[in-house]
Amino acid sequence: MSQENGNSAFIQVRNLKKHFPILRGVLRRQVGAVQAVDGLTFNIYKGETLGLVGESGCGKSTTGRAILQLLKPTDGQVVFKDQELTKLSGGELRKARRHMQMIFQDPYASLNPRMTVGNIVGEPLEIHNIGNAKNRRKRVQELLKLVGLNPYFVNRYPHEFSGGQRQRIGIARALATNPDFIVADEPISALDVSIQAQVVNLMDDLKSELGLTYLFIAHDLSMVRYISDRVAVMYLGRIVELSDRDQIFEYTLHPYTQALLSAIPIPDPEKEEKRQRLILEGDVPSPANPPSGCRFHPRCSYVTDICREEDPEFRDLGRNGAEHWVACHHAEQFI
What we know:
The chain is of the alpha/beta class.
């Protein structure tokens, strides 16, 4: 697989893999592996939001957790601030985690119901030994105010808040240690539509105000287009297309991305009626037994023999100096 240009990359991911063993029998012998993430190579640049999209089960969340070392990668490298995260010891990794945090998908499951909001948001400060008790309490109130909550809610419990408010608490917790990089794992998918825009706008404002860098994981392409600077499309453990947001949506080079985009409603009745909807046939193959060659070939309408036999190279077919990475044998026909 070719690599993106590593110049000025804030985070470099190289050949990242995470395989989960399949164990059977009384002796729990390994008989296979679920290839949740299988050889990802990409960069995340300082101050950008990289959107990671794909169907459920394609490995998006596993990718985010593997980058943060919440899941130990099977293979590959993750370089953050010139540190190879996969080789750090427990103490060194703990220090590095102060600078990288995660916003979890489910605001109902990610907050401890037995802890007050003040304890939840202040816990990272205690773990990393930041400030004394008085300073921490003041910092927690500042964080709650920053995410649009009443700073005097510190003694309340999660069950007293709505889903949107809980996600704001989760965002405040992620910001507690002044991180540089945040993985947002589908942070709005569990929220009402009316609340989603508020949370996304909050994240966008915080990015500008605090100089944050995001990996924004989602399956809602319209929301990804709104918040992301670049977009990576993932299918069955692999990235199949990666480019600037406008390039992805206007000059799509991979059949899978074309199918995803065709599912987005257009708020124009005439255009919506004229456009052709691309419907994928068949089911997503099992990551425990992926197909040979291109992993998308069983569902692709452009499939040829080379697609069934050879794994496509992840290559740059960008125009006018803009990078546009794609893994497809026939991508040139869409240029």
